[in-house]
Write a structure and sequence with these properties.
Elements: H1 2-20, E1 32-40, H2 45-54, E2 59-67, E3 78-82, E4 85-89, E5 97-101, E6 105-108, E7 111-126, E8 129-137, H3 139-145, E9 148-153
Parallel strand pairs: 1-2, 1-9, 5-8
Antiparallel strand pairs: 2-7, 3-4, 4-5, 6-7, 7-8
Helix pairs in contact: 1-3
């Protein structure tokens, strides 16, 4: 009886994972996910922005932190919570993208921490600014997929690494 229940659970997890992790030619073990880590600053934010824009409709691991900042000023990395969502962007004439995260973040010692896996979704445009939503994916689904996870520091990001 226990074996049947475990098998049933594994089948349900595999079906759910199929809808979450993009499948390419080959096995799940051939899929490689990028997990970005490190402190995000106004200097390296453009690398994160470019990478996440190129990674639309894929799963990305994040283990990053951003200093909390809710005082609007051009050229400052904004990182704050509004209406139950975490938002981050750099305002100014070169502003391209605003990222929002609904869950999977916390405020710790004055910094927002994102630690988990997220589905990157294009959320359209608002006043000429691209909006990207990061939807948290249960880590257990990523682990059960057998996908390889490659850790990359935010300073070493390159948009060409997306969608491999």
């Amino acid at each position: 009886m226990k074996r049947a229940a475990i098998r049933s659970c594994l089948i349900r997890c595999a079906i759910a994972l199929t809808a979450v992790v993009p499948v390419s030619a080959g096995t799940a073990a051939d899929i490689s996910l990028i997990r970005i880590s490190g402190a995000v600053t106004v200097d390296n934010y453009p690398k994160l922005e470019a990478y996440l824009n190129a990674a639309s409709d894929t799963i990305v691991g994040l283990k990053i932190m951003l200093d909390a900042q809710d005082q609007y000023a051009d050229g400052v990395l904004m990182a704050y919570e509004d209406g139950g969502a975490f938002l981050t962007y750099v305002p100014g004439p070169d502003m391209e993208t605003e990222f929002s995260v609904n869950g999977g973040y916390s405020l710790q010692h004055g910094a927002y921490v994102l630690d988990g896996f997220y589905l990157v979704k294009d959320a359209g445009f608002n006043q000429g600014i691209s909006a990207v939503a990061l939807e948290q994916v249960p880590e257990s689904q990523v682990i059960l997929s057998g996908a390889k996870v490659q850790d990359v520091e935010v300073d070493a990001l390159d948009p060409s690494m997306a969608k491999r």
